[in-house]
Amino acid sequence: MSYHYVQKVLQRIIENTNTTTNPGIIIASPSESPPYKFHWIRDSALVMRTFIDIYKKTKDPTYFQYLINYIENESKIQTLKTTVGLGEPKFNINCTTYEGDWGRPQNDGPALRGIIMFQLIDLFRKYETIIDKLIVPIILNDLDYILDNYQNVSFDIWEEKKGWHFYTRLVQCKFLKEAYKFKKVLKLNNSLSEKITIAYNLLLNDLSDHICDDHIISSFDSEGNIIKYHDAANLLAFCHIDYDEEILEKIPLELIIPSCDELINYFRKKYSDDELNLIGRYPDDKYYDGHVWIICSLALAQIFVQIYQMKNIKRSNLPMHKSKSNPNNNYIEIANQILEWVLTIDPNLILSEQYNPKTMKSLSADKLTWNYSELYHLYNMLN
Fold first, then answer.
1. Residue 189 and residue 47: Cα distance in Å, rounded?
2. For residue 50, which of 375, 383, 382, 381 has the smallest C-alpha distance?
3. Residues 268-323: pLDDT tens digits?
4. Does the pLDDT value for residue 236 go beyond 70?
5. Who's near 197: CB < 8 A, 6+ residues apart?
6. Please, are residues 184 and 121 in contact by the beta-carbon 8 Å criterion?
7. Residues 6 or more apart from 311 whose CB is under 8 A from it?
8. CB neighbours (10 Å) of residue 383?
9. Cβ of 345: how many Cβ atoms within 10 Å?
10. Among candidate residues 255, 343, 336, the one with its CA nearest the CA of residue 301
């Protein structure tokens, strides 16, 4: 991906961010049908990774302002009254509470926002007032919420199933780990620090319940029954904790390989294409007939880059990511193929949520902002 495409990625994100009346609102998609024109806590936190990285590289004040707008907006959103507190997944783009029916609570959002806020503390070390007056209060609110709710069921990232989810638990684990690391900045007392440590270890133990026969169970219902095994949410989970080494010692990355293989195999069969390395959310997905999702395929590529780069990881013996043109499981080659595929969907990078590679038709919400964040992240990993 050239500099030209990086600029296109940033342009597409900014188009969904630059709201004059409510700066800091990040529109998930301009789509009215399906209705995605909202500010999601999860999506906006993930998109901010891009602004953080580009500001680190350029020191462009434009991106600094986007970061400040985001911080101020999240501070305001946290004060809005909702039926589930900070587990409310999305808000209207005029910065008011969305009160329609929805899958709530979604307890990954506060954890992801908190993870981003810790990255902003690192970035803004010399701006003590911003940290103390704006960022720390946001983190403390999210910390209180997670500590009160990590043992409660919530909806998954696809907003479909209520239960216990690998993705939610893993990002909560990362958030609590960062909270303990930054305890001096947060001015945590010994009692709260100990509470964080206990919760972190309990979450690690809960995550071990998701490991079965060297693969990951994605979700359990509230009664402990398995809802789903192989799910691209599991891939995204590792991506969104930045492959934290301490957590990976307990939940090894190689556990994700069977899910990668299962998803690749399923979507190869779906499209009758033995060379395909693109995936959707999970087998038998019914939403828009469950075609390839761009964020899921980009997550697969990121996982393959990480597997390639890790020296001590056990390589998979399963054959599903092999093909005639790539018989040796060349992970970097697959990742580059996925990147090039995304870049050729549309010359202007108008990327919808889903894509049918057989008919070459885009489906569901258009210009999904999350797509561009994962695309930017994959580019960074490959360069």
1. 32
2. 375
3. 999 999 989 999 999 999 999 999 999 999 999 999 999 888 866 665 544 456 66
4. yes
5. 180
6. no
7. none
8. 7
9. 17
10. 336
Classify burial at 83, counting beta carbons within 10 Å of its beta carbon; exposed 0-12, middle 13-18, buried 19 or more.
exposed
**Spatial distance between the Cα atoms of 313 and 327, rounded to a whole number of angstroms:** 20
For the beta carbon of residue 364, count every other beta carbon within 10 angstroms: 18
Q: Please give the structure tokens belonging to residue 112.
A: 């992801």
pLDDT tens-digit series, residues 166-220: 999 999 999 999 999 999 999 999 999 999 999 999 999 999 999 998 899 999 9
Separation CA 183–CA 93 (nearest Å):
33
- Residue 80 CB-density burial (10 A; 0-12 exposed, 13-18 middle, 19+ buried): middle
User: Where would I find the H helices in the chain?
Assistant: 3-15, 41-58, 61-77, 109-123, 128-130, 136-149, 166-181, 183-186, 190-208, 232-240, 245-250, 257-271, 294-309, 331-345, 369-382
Closest by CA to 301, choosing from 265, 330, 267, 266, is 330
What values do phi and psi take at 40, rounded to 5?
-90, 135
DSSP for 163-221, please give it: EEEHHHHHHHHHHHHHHHHTHHHHT--HHHHHHHHHHHHHHHHHHHTTEETTEE--EE-
Tell me the residue type at 81.
K
